[in-house]
Amino acid sequence: MGSGGPVHEVDSQRLNRRAFLLLLFGAGLGMKVLDKGAEVVTWESVIRAGLPLDDVSIWALGSHCSDLLNGCSTFPEILGHLRPCPAVTWVAAGARSGLGKRRVLERLTRLIAEEYAAAETVIVDRWLLSRTEAALCAAAAIRAREGRA
Amino acid sequence: MIVDLEEVGGGSYEADVCVIGGGAAGITVARALATSGISTVLVEGGGLTPEATSQQLYRGEVTGRPYSLETSRLRYFGGSTGHWEGYCGPLDASDFRPRGWVPYSGWPIDHQELLPYWTEAHEILDLGPFLYDVPGRERRTGEFKWLRPCLWRHSPPTRFKEKYEDDVRRSDVITCLLHANLLRLQGTNGGRVARQALVGALGGALATVRAHTFVLACGGIENARVLLLAAHRGDLALDQVEAVTGRFFMEHVLVGKTATVLANGDWWRDFERFSHEGFDVTPGLRLSEKTQQDHELLSLGGMMRPTECPAGPLAGRTCLAFLTVAEQAPDPGSLVTLGSRHDAFGLPLAKLHWRLGDLDRRTIDVGSRLLAHEIGRLRLGRTRLEDMLSPAAADSFWSANHHIGTTRMADDGVVDPDCRVHGIENLFVAGSSVFPTGGYVNPTLTIVALALRLADHIAKRL
Predict the structure, then answer these.
(1) Residues B35-41: contacts with CB within 8 Å, 24+ apart?
(2) What is the ipTM of this complex?
(3) CA of A80 to nearest chain B CA: how many angstroms apart?
(4) What is the residue-averaged pLDDT of chain A?
(5) A110, B217, B221, B311: most buried, per Cβ within 10 A?
């Protein structure tokens, strides 16, 4: 964050859409891989490591996040707009190489803490979230919505 | 000894020093002077217990932010120590330095100057050792980036009436006049030397007090009012300070909840009040000096208070409210003046116009965001922020009943570094009205420390 700090943070209305989408895509790839592993890691369980809310609350929060992605109301639509995100594909690569759930969570936790330290944060429904957390919430919300449809 | 003006019906008194106001500052000055054998008449407007008729003399006019002039202070022997909560701490070294982003900041004395007096004030206020760094208490919270751990020490709280009435009563050199309300403070030599205080009781008794030196210790609102009255009547030569007297009224801004922290684990228990060597302390967090510089903020501190999580998915979990105490920036437009209404003696009541500025609000807003970032960075939980810049948020800003800054210590202020009123040879001011800035910490410890320092100075002069 340096001397800039949170006074320069973006709020939910000003979230850089490109950065957001990149993160979301990376997270999506990572979680797809994880979902195929021996140990199932859900979107919600990853989010809950930092933000201990129930599934419904996470989806509600994610809806606030996904509202930012105008015109992208389905998961395939979002994926179609995205580019790989190094930070989260790094997590996915770790998972492919056999990292367990604990290691994945450790790495994500570290990544998220670094984002807080760098003020790479957004305010969503008054919650201060790191960008990755917001992206994970959005993805969880969209997948849940598609699952219910 | 203690004399009740209502009972004796009047008289003339003379002493080395006349101290006007029998609260924490005035009693401390009188007791400290007594140790040097210096005689004092301690003039107190109230009695030994709170009385509605006396308390009504504290009524006044309020414009600007809501404020209760009558209930935010007590008019009887011991003053507002009769209802204070006992939170204490010294100002930070950085509070004394000029800050480029805070107009009118900077004290003409430094932190080191007050250290011996803060230590002595600790004894007076029953605070235990002068120690504000208790090792190991922050062990589970890790290294902070924007914040720093801090401590409040708790006075029992010391009620000056309970603790010091007997001292004053038995003293050979202190004469405490009760029910003696200051009516005039008159000077000689063209008003450059204070010579006599005229005091009166509500029942009609009048008395005069003559002294070599006078000390105003009536609190942050009345100190200004007394000087403004003396200037208005031409009793003292206050031309140099009249225009600034009463200006720069500051408070500590309390906000019950700037942020709700959803805690991850029980680390927050390290911020619970605990006993250290038999004395209670409460750990807290404050903005570091560097953070204040980098973000151009005022000083701000706060305490973590467990609170009920809001209903819904968080019900049953531990939430923490961050009780915030923020410094207010000096602002000449936040001020005490003489009002149009009059008290029972026919004297103009105080009129207070308290206002907050952009820097005050921004400090609270950014301070709570920095807390939220720190909580996330250290993996202590997640934080839900209140919108501190919304018009509705202003309603959640409370005053702490700390009256600061109206007779500020500055070359272009009201008093000099020795707390002497500019232009008057023998008139001094005690209390938080002399603070040029107030930091975030409660003022009583520094009020008592400055009173001790003032007594030392007067003792050397006499």
Answers:
(1) B36/B459, B37/B173, B38/B173, B38/B458, B38/B459, B38/B462, B39/B15, B39/B173, B39/B174, B39/B175, B40/B15, B40/B16, B40/B173, B40/B174, B40/B175, B41/B13, B41/B14, B41/B15, B41/B17, B41/B175, B41/B176, B41/B177, B41/B209, B41/B211
(2) 0.83
(3) 31
(4) 63
(5) B217
